[in-house]
Design a protein that fits this description.
CATH class of the largest domain: Alpha Beta
Order of helices and strands: HHEEHEEEEEEEEEHEHEHEEH
Largest sheet: 8 strands, mixed
CATH architecture of the largest domain: 2-Layer Sandwich
Distance between the termini: 54 Å
Bound molecules: 2,5-anhydro-1,6-di-O-phosphono-D-mannitol, magnesium ion
Number of helices: 7
Helix content: 25-40%
CATH topology of the largest domain: Fructose-1,6-Bisphosphatase, Chain A, domain 1
Structural class: alpha+beta
Number of domains: 2
Radius of gyration: 19 Å
Shape: globular
Strand order of the largest sheet: 4-3-5-6-7-8-9-10
Amino acid sequence: MTSSPAADLSSALEGRFDREVCDLLARFAEASAELRDILATAPLTNLLGATGDVNVQGESTQKLDERANQLFTAALSRPSVARLISEEEDEPLEVGDGRYTIGFDPLDGSSNIGFAAVGSVLGVYDGVARNSFAAGGMTGRSLVAAAFTVYGLPTMLVVASRSQVSTFAFDPSDRSWRVAAEGLSVPKAAYASINWTYRSRWSPSVVRAVDAASDGLRGRYSGSMVEDILRVLLAGGVFMYPEDSSSPNGKLRMLYEVCPMAFIMEAAGGAASNGAQPVLDVPVTAPHQRSPFIAGASDAVARYVAGYAGAE
Ligand code: AHM
Ligand code: MG
C-alpha cells in the first residue's frame, strides 16, 4: 500500500497566515533545520560548553546559545519586522519599521545541551508600538502566530494560529518539514510536568495547587520546556513552572517562552495561567519579564487555579 506524501510547510500554512507571517514561519523553520544539523555534530565540532559570558538573565551563555542566536537573528531580520527580542540579548534589537515584533528563545533547555532534547521558540506579535513596554505594556493577546521546534528524534515543529495548531516533522532526505498532524486538541490529562525538587521553596498556595493539578497524573519532567510542552500537547496533562522562594516571579520569560506556549495551548483548546489569571492577559512591561506558568489541559489548569486560590 502506498500513501501520498504529507503536505509541506508552506502549502499547509498558506491561507492561515498573511504572506509576511508565512515568510517569518518559513524562515524560523529553515533556521531550525540548520540548528538541528549543528546540534547533531556539536560534540565533534567543539561547540559544547560555555562562552564565559553571562547573559542579561544572569545565566552563563553556552557556545550553542550564541550560535543559535546569530542564526535566528539573521533569519528573522525581515522587512516585515520592527524589532527582535531574544533571550540572549539585553535589549530589543530594532531592525526596521515593519509591523511585527518578534520574541524568540534561540535555544530553550540549555541545561540539556549535549544530553537530551532542546528547542527554539518563536512568538510573532502584531502592532506593538516601540514604546509600549514603558507606556504600560502590551499583552500576549497581540500574538498572531507562535511556533516552537524540538530537536529530538523526530525533529518536530509546532505552529499555531489563534484557532489551529499543526505539527510538522523534519524529513532529512529532502530537508522538508511535512505535516504530522493538524487541528491538534490537548488530550484531557496524562502527565504532570514540574520540577518537584523545588517543593521546599513553594508557598502553601503553590503546594496546594500543584497537588490538585497533578492528582492522578504521572510525572514527566525533562528540564526542556519545549519537550515537556510537546508531550502535554500530544499526550495530555499539565506543565507547571510556578514561582518559588528563589524565583519569586517564576523562571520563564513572558515574551519568548510563556506567551508563545500559552497561545499554542489555548489554540489547541487548553489553558494557560499564572495561577491567578490567564497569562495572555497579563501586561508585559519589560522585555525579559518573568511569570509563573501553568499550561495544559483545561481541567488540570482549572484544578491548579482553584488550589492556588485556596478552594478545595
Ligand atoms: P533556558 O531558556 O535558559 O534553557 O531556561 C528555560 C528552561 C526551560 O526549558 C525549562 O522548563 C526550565 O528552564 C528548567 O528549569 P529548572 O532547571 O529550574 O527546572
Ligand atoms: Mg528558554
